[in-house]
Amino acid sequence: MVHATRRDVIKGATAAAAATLGLTGGAGAQTYPGGLTIKIVVPFPPAGATDIVGRTISDALGQFWKTTTIVDNVPGAGANIGIDKVAKGPTDGTQLLIVPPNLTTNQFLYQKLTFNPETDIIPVSQVARLPNLLCVRKGLPIKTVADLIAYAKANPGKLNYASSGVGTTIHLSAEMFKKMAGVDIVHVPYRGSANALNDLIAGQVDLMFDNLPSIEPQARAGNVVGVAVTSATKSPLAPEYATVAEVLPGFDVHSWFGVGVRAGTPQTIIDKLEADVMAICRQDDVKKRLAGASIETIGSSAKEFREYVATERRRWGQLITDLKIKVD
Questions:
Q1: Residue ranges in 31-79 assigned as alpha helix (H)
Q2: Of 21, 117, 118, 314, which has the highest C-beta tally within 10 A?
């Protein structure tokens, strides 16, 4: 018979405790999502581009993981309410955020936020992007970007542009255009892009930068005149349009979307999320579903997404600060 010493007993107990901790603390991360219900927070109302991306990612992850995923639309305050919900939510990977560009702009637009956009949300993967499309109302003698710049310079302050609200990529696209082209065009903000687009079609406003899937059907139908996309290169989903960058080199604006989690989420869960989100973004059905809404699938690494977010934050922060743009 082998007699255990006191040291052996203590050593065995310590090992058992460590194993128990490994199971309770690490197994959840190792087997994530392990049948958990995953909530996908979309910080905008249903039906927009952010919601389309959110539902596509939710469905694909649900099938990939064979678990239940739920889209939770939490709109308001330029995405701040939805972002704040995730920033103050669980750290076990059961609540994900569809990250919008607002994560890089709102800290400069709003006097005070209830979360820190630089530290409270961890970027996991950029999943999709889409350019805006510059369109003008029918009746204007404008078919190209060069036409628009020439007309605006000949008629300073006489043209106006609609936007979906202060601080949106639709608004900032136009402000970036004005700055780079050196033109004076008056801003007419609306509550959402639908009303703005309706007034562009009716000829009540002169031009608008709007998300490609929202405005392109109207250009195709001849209700407005499509001029150019805001991406640096032609959009693979709408290659018939020129780019603003052909006339204004360096002009490159996208609406983009990613997946993020609350800071404090275990790295093992973040790594699992990164790998699986990248995997679903390679799936043909995901690409086809997003392409049907004129949205390009990306599927970047966490490192690439972090660097992209940092670059966007510097770029838009500089523009917003220089132009003193604020949301009341």
A1: 49-65
A2: 117
Please provide the distance, in angstroms rounded to a whole number, between the alpha carbons at the two ends of the chain. Answer: 80
Give dist(CA 151, CA 154) in Å, integer.
5
Beta-carbon-side half-sphere exposure of residue 204 (alpha carbons within 13 Å):
11
Pairing of strands 186-189, 207-211: unpaired
Question: Using one digit for the tens of pLDDT, what is the confidence trace for 141-174?
Answer: 999 999 999 999 999 999 999 998 899 989 999 9
- Rg of the chain on CA atoms, in Å: 24
Nearest residue to 230 (alpha-carbon basis) of 284, 291, 168, 298: 168
Superfamily of domain 35-130+255-323: Bordetella uptake gene, domain 1 (3.40.190.150)
Strand ranges (E), the chain: 38-42, 69-73, 95-99, 121-136, 160-163, 186-189, 207-211, 225-229, 242-243, 254-262, 296-297
| 114: region left, alpha or beta (phi > 0 left; psi from -120 to 50 alpha) | alpha
As annotated, the residues of the chain forming the CATH 3.40.190.10 domain(s) are: 131-246
pLDDT for 9 beyond 60 = no
- Structure token pair of residue 311: 């670059």
Strands 186-189 and 160-163: parallel
Q: Are 93 and 275 in contact (CB under 8 A)?
A: no
Dist. CA 261–CA 83, nearest whole Å: 10
Judged against a pLDDT cut of 90, whether residue 14 lies above it is answered with no
Phi and psi at residue 319, in whole multiples of 5°? -65, -45
CA atoms of 163 and 205, how far apart (whole Å): 10
State the fold for domain 131-246: D-Maltodextrin-Binding Protein; domain 2 (3.40.190)
pLDDT band at 325 (very low <50, low <70, confident <90, very high): very high
Enumerate the CATH 3.40.190.150 domain ranges in the chain, comma separated: 35-130+255-323
CA of 55: how far to CAs of 6, 272, 295, in Å?
A: 58, 20, 13
pTM of the model: 0.86
* Backbone angles phi and psi of 107, in degrees to 5: -65, -20
